Amino acid sequence: MTQKGEPIGESADETKQQKTTNQAKASYGAPHANNSPTHGLWALTNRDLRKWYTNPYQLLISLVQPVIWMGLFGKALNFGSIFTKTLPPGTSSGVIDTELKSIFGTSSYFSFLVCGMLVFIVLFTASFAGMSVVWDRRFGFMNKALTTPVSRGVIVMGKILQSVGRSIIQAAVVLVIGIALGMETGNLSVLGIAGTFVVIFLVAMALSGLFVMLSLRSSDWQTQMAIINLLNLPLLMASNALFPISNPAFGAPGWLQDVVKLNPVSYAIDAIRQMLIGAVGTNALWIDFTVVLAFAAFFSALGIVMSWRLLKK
Prior knowledge:
This protein has 313 residues and is mostly helical. It has helices spanning 10-28, 37-53, 56-76, 79-86, 93-104, 109-127, 129-138, 141-146, 152-181, 190-214, 221-237, 254-262, 264-277, 285-310. It has one domain (36-76, 108-310).
């Protein structure tokens, strides 16, 4: 017989199980949330990256434009053939190569263009980092993120880092495609490739910080698209991505050459050309690195500071 008030059968087993659970909680303590900034940064960055790498069509579509530029534009402009037909008959290939190097810094315009396309893909990927902020605000995720212990600066850095990760992967794919289409590989080295991706990392940080900062108070995707279109083409065309505009031999007006020299994107491309194809640089390599590093530090820091003032529910 059981004593009065003692559970019988399954009720007794459930009571014992509950006691065991309570004892375990008392021993190990209740689970607690991980409030470290690095955990929050990784969670926010991985959330945006997951939306990208689980949709391969986004990667494919993002690569279409630079591949078209390289495959159609780059191969159509055969400056070596143009020089052969305009110079006196019998001009040696060495003279033609010298003329090309005096203008492009290299004898292969296609290789010149591929290096520009590496920063081209970074520019267009970074410009849409701000769109992620707009959509998060429109669909309510931003308000939820702002109510968590994660700081506003971490939210901004998560947006910047997911854009940087996408830029590096897409630039690597563009480089492989460029090599397959005929880019010069005689000067390729492990150190040069590593330095190239350091520059890509820095310029992606800077451009992503710029576009995220411009989207902090925006909830209208049309306004953000207008900003993207307003800045993208000037940053691209007023650089040395497609042509050596800053080279006086190219014949661009002086004011445009000055604009190109003020454009930090030009310094990133100049450094990449020196490291990948051994091109004659417009500036010393250390100057290019210094400008790109300062560019990245300034806009990354500015994005975080502005988030404290502008990122509100």
